[in-house]
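Q: Given only this backbone (462 positions), what sequence would you predict?
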């Protein structure tokens, strides 16, 4: 760069950065999510942001175009040496695009150090090199949980997922939501029963999974392109549109399994779905929080059983706000043994962005401080520091104003940051061991003895 050239310091497209009020909202939501995850016994881990490219490409990723590859930028002298020697690097590395594939590699690396079933949560950023647009980011935070077992994993772990989703979104208080549940074996089994060949089932499931995005007419066209007959297409459309209460849908599925041919896999899927629904009910999830939706498939190929998508009612255009499912072979691809797992993921960055835009959530105050101790006169700074520390020791967040400026300006500064209370101590108050406590929301100002100040602030905050 030539001297005097201007540096473009704007944020790269698709890479978000937060103002303090937005970051505090993210941390608040992370605390809620963490508490719920840990209440079910999930333990935190962290995997590298960078993985070997062959690991990320090992099983069912969403296409190589979404993976960010990494190469070091070497200084000219080292790059020249590298070029001369013909060295190109012994391994390719890339940024992780989700948490699930790195989890599989993590388990393979630490197999003998972990206890199974292994239940973990992870709330890291991931990277996808896709086109940035509204609500879509190239860097975003995912909050994931997964349970992985060796050989067998109880379906009751699948049942826990809707209970966890419910607790999180009820705590966040974003309105009514619906957890839509399905089982990939139900879809696969039905497709087999109507004569869809094995080599076309995955692509047909992918088409069906896009029903909400592309509509019924486009789904029919895409199925016909796959060589699915008009009669088969009509049966598929009728099947995925089966609705009613959970019990009504289960009854209809059982009836189909009894009357169609080659329904072994369909019957297994229905049985698993019935077990999961019974577990969801036993965990106390309200009936209006979940349903069976036969159009839900989840796009990733590694899902093999239960799948979930969560929709915010009245705001369906936001898309799924929490999704996931069961997989059987993802971890085994590294170890050569069966290690079934089930998990869910909340794309928190995208969720916050969309909920703020829709007015469903609001940002928090720019600072966590609840009180500002104002600076009336420099010679009283020792008193201000002692009072501030006394309040902090009582569990109150405090900003001490070190800069001398007009009182009104200090009130404006506190108000701009969302601080509700200001403590005012002049020479008379200091001599009498008292203060004035001003509530910036109401304008009320009361006199409080310093010894009672912390208790009074806590009472008013409550």
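A: Predicted residues:
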């Amino acid at each position: 760069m030539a001297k005097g050239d201007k540096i473009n310091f704007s944020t790269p497209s698709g890479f978000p950065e937060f103002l303090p009020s937005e970051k505090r909202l993210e941390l608040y939501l992370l605390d809620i999510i963490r508490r719920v995850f840990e209440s079910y016994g999930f333990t935190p881990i962290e995997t590298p942001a960078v993985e070997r490219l062959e690991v990320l490409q090992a099983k069912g990723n969403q296409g190589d175009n979404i993976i960010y590859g990494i190469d070091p930028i070497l200084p000219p002298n080292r790059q020249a040496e590298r070029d001369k020697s013909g060295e190109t690097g012994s391994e390719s590395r890339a940024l992780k695009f989700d948490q699930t594939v790195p989890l599989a590699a993590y388990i393979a690396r630490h197999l003998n150090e972990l206890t199974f079933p292994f239940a973990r949560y992870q709330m890291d950023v991931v990277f996808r090199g896709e086109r940035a647009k509204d609500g879509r980011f190239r860097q975003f935070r995912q909050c994931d949980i997964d349970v992985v077992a060796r050989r067998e994993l109880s379906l009751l772990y699948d049942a826990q997922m809707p209970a966890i989703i419910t607790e999180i979104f009820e705590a966040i208080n974003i309105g009514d939501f619906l957890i839509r549940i399905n089982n990939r074996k139900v879809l696969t089994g039905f497709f087999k029963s109507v004569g869809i060949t094995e080599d076309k089932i995955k692509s047909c499931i992918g088409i069906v999974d896009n029903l909400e995005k592309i509509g019924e007419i486009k789904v029919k066209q895409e199925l016909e392109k796959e060589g699915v007959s008009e009669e088969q297409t009509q049966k598929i459309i009728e099947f995925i549109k089966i609705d009613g209460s959970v019990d009504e849908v289960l009854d209809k599925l059982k009836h189909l399994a009894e009357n169609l041919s080659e329904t072994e896999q369909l019957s297994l899927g229905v049985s698993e779905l019935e077990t999961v629904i019974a577990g969801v009910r036993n965990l106390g999830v309200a009936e209006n929080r979940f349903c069976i939706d036969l159009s839900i498939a989840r796009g990733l190929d590694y899902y093999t059983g239960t799948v979930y998508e969560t929709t915010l009612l009245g705001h369906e255009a936001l898309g799924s706000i929490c999704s996931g499912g069961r997989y059987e072979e993802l971890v085994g691809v590294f170890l050569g043994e069966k290690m079934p797992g089930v998990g869910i993921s909340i794309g928190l960055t995208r969720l916050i962005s969309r909920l703020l835009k829709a007015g469903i959530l609001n940002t928090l105050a720019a600072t966590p401080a609840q009180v500002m101790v104002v600076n009336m006169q420099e010679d009283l700074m020792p008193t201000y520091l002692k009072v501030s520390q006394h309040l902090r020791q009582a569990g109150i967040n405090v900003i001490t104003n070190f800069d001398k400026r007009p009182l009104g300006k200090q009130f404006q500064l506190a108000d701009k940051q969302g601080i509700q209370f200001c403590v005012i101590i002049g020479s008379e108050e200091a001599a009498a061991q008292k203060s004035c406590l001003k509530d910036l929301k109401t304008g009320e100002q009361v006199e409080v003895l310093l010894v009672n100040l912390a208790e009074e602030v806590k009472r008013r905050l409550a």
